[in-house]
Every structure is written in structure tokens, then in C-alpha cells.
Amino acid sequence: MKNLVFALSIVFVLSACSSDSSDNENQVITLNPTNLEIYFPPVNSNEWETISIEDLGWNSAGEQPLYDFLAERETDAFLVLKNGRIVIERYFGDFQQNDNHAWNSAGKTLTAMIAGIAQEEGFLSLNDSSAAYLGTAWSSLSTEQEAQITVFNHLTMTTGLDYDVDDIFCTDPECLLYKNEPGQFWFYHNGPYTLLDNIITNAVGQDFEDYFSAKIGSRIGMQGAWVSIGFNNVYFSNARSMARFGILNLNNGVWDGQTILGDATFLTDMKNTSQNMNQAYGYLYWLNGKDSYRVPGSEIEFSGKLIPNAPNDLYAGLGKNDQKLYIVPSEELVIVRMGGDAGETLLGPSSFDNELWGLLNDLMD
Length: 365
Fold this sequence. Notes:
This protein is an alpha+beta fold. The protein has two domains: 2-121 and 205-364, Beta-lactamase (3-Layer(aba) Sandwich), CATH 3.40.710; 131-196, no CATH class. It has helices spanning 2-16, 63-72, 108-120, 131-134, 143-148, 151-156, 190-204, 208-220, 239-250, 264-270, 351-364, and strands at 28-30, 48-50, 75-82, 85-91, 101-102, 224-229, 232-237, 254-255, 258-259, 286-287, 292-293, 302-303, 315-319, 323-328, 333-339. The strands form five sheets. The protein has a six-stranded antiparallel sheet with strand order 4-3-15-14-13-10, with helices on both faces. The termini are far apart.
């Protein structure tokens, strides 16, 4: 019965944040590529400019193999945007444009940007001890050990907390044990990341979800909700909302003339290597084009690029069951994939990334 009530609660929340297609007819404006300055879809509207594969000079013969691959790999929604304009928008099975889907760990990118906004507004500093916002005894460490862990460590997966625990998602003090000095080892440990929600809430004096909505979500036209599932705080939205956030990233924190995040140093650091233990990790963003990378659940460093088939400057939000938000500045692309597990049940990067980019290269050739 408890599980049923929880499930119904999620349905209610997600229904409340969905657009009603009967009240707001979807509109598209087809555009020829004469002027491809970045486009921002209007807030509180389904209007969205499109541009065709043919007008871009892409290889239309690559479309069907791409769609077949996506359908075979449990995809629900797939979007490709060029300069903010929709090139491809496909939904599979019963999934529709206004349906909501979990971002899973791709939503870490939302937390990274809202942390940057909180710092820009003077509520916190990445160099602050996280104990300044979490209080003492938030872990099983001594007060002195807690004081050494900074907000920066939470943002970069370098807290030094023990990841060899039964539940890496657990945020209870008994799950947060000392293993290494902070900043000395990188491991994809979800519990310390989740505590960023409390850090931001206590720093700004406003509920995390409300602050996110006021500073990002409502300003760029995202619809969605943060839903507590176990220890995790998971963002749900439709695919177009994920695409809107991608456009905000592509335009360096500015939305249609409105500065959402203006701290150029934070933006640069967020999307570049944040520490010397995992070159492919920024502030909760995954980075391509580096000489080596580490992945969730492993202590091994792998040689080569994270996604060999993808452009070197790609950065991404990557979530469990292959939720994907790719941003490629050199190609002015935003690509969204939502759906079920594509075959490996991993928390972030997977072989699906490279296979997908092989097909995208065929399409864009």
C-alpha cells in the first residue's frame, strides 16, 4: 500500500507539471538556414522553430538506421537541435511530447549550474567547508575531518568519503565514513553529491526546488519537478525541457538576452577538467576529448576519449539507463535522449554513447 501511495504521488506531481496539449496546440515554424544565429523557443509556449536535415545538407539516408537503433534500444524521446532549432524530434512507443521522464544523473548538471548561481549571488563559495551549511555531525567523520571537505569537493566527486559502503546513495551519517583526504581521489559517489541540495537550501535560505525554479526553470520555460526517490532527488521533465537547458548551456548561461549565470570563470571551470584524477569530469558534467577517463563504480583509469566517435568539445549530462544531454559548441548542437536502459545498466557513460555517435556521424556527414 505504501508503494502504491508513493507511485500515485509521483503521477500527481508529474501530471501537475505537464503541459496540456489540448489547451496549447503545438506549433512549429520551418526555417531555411540563411541565418542560423542561436534561437530561443518562447517561454510558456509550444512554438519552436525547426530546420530540416535536407536544408542542413546532412545525409538523409542516415535517418532510418538511426531511428531503428533508437527503437531497438528502448528509447522514449530523441531530439537533435541545431542552433536551438529542432532538426529531429522523435517519440517511440506510447511516449509522447508532453510526457515526463526521469533525468537520473543527467540532472546533476542542473545542480551544478544552480550552485554557480548561488555562488554568484554571494550565498556560498565553492571554497567553503560544506559543514558551514550542513552543520556538524552530518557524517561519521570527526569535526576536524568534516571541516576539510568543501563545496568544491561535493561538486567534483572528491570528498574522500568511503565509497565501499553498502549503499553509495545513502546520505545518513552512518553511511558517510572517512576513506581518503578530500581532493586526493575521484570516485562517483552519489551520497555526497545529493547533499549539495541541502547545502544550497541552507545557503540561500530557500527550498532547493523553489530556488531552482526561480533562477533557471521558469526563466527558460522548463516544466518539471524534483521528486524524492529513496535518498535521491531526481528531476523529471519532458524532453523539450531538457533541450531548453541544453540551449542555455550552448549560449554560455544567457537565455535570449537574460543572464541566468554570468560568472564566466565558473562556467568555464564547470565544463572543463575540475581535478587531476579524472580528466573527463568537470563540475558534475562529463567531458569528451581528454586523454583518459574514469567511470562510475570503478577505480580504474582508462586511456583515450570518453566517447571516441563524438566531437572533442562535447560535454554532457549522463544518467542511469542512458539519459543523455549532449552539448557540442563547435557544431552548435544539443542532443537529448530519454528512455530505458540501452543494454548496460550503468550510472553514466556507456557503450551506447559511442554507438549512437557513430550513427549521428553518418547522418551529419
